[in-house]
Amino acid sequence: MAEFRFCVSVMPKPGILDPQGRAVEGSLPYLGVDSVSSVRIGRRVELTVEAATESGARTIVERLADDLLANPLIEAWTAEAIV
Amino acid sequence: MAEFRFCVSVMPKPGILDPQGRAVEGSLPYLGVDSVSSVRIGRRVELTVEAATESGARTIVERLADDLLANPLIEAWTAEAIV
Does the beta-carbon distance from B43 to A41 stay under 8 Å? Predict the structure, then answer.
């Protein structure tokens, strides 16, 4: 068995309200920044999986992302191995 | 002026308590998963910057990350351009 480190990025789906992103955009004028737009804020989950192969580890990560880490109604996720 | 899309990853620093990561780890047994460990949860911020050059855009992103997006006492950030 080997250990694989993965990152799961969970972002609000397009069209879904993103209050954290709006809050950041609302703060920009107070910082004198007028060149930043389309702020979206999601979660970054890093985890270690023990498995025989990377593809086996990825299967576990994908199941966790679907069942635990993201709400599929409002969030989309991507998973990538971290080297 | 051109538009550049960046991603800022904000993660709890090593040694800093990560209650969300602990909560996920605590849920794993109920999903029958015993091969996942070292879960760390942070934020992923995506934003668009209007600037003359990518390096100019990166300077703005780095200032925002330092001043607004991350708490430097407990969080570390990295920024990368999204193609």
Answer: yes
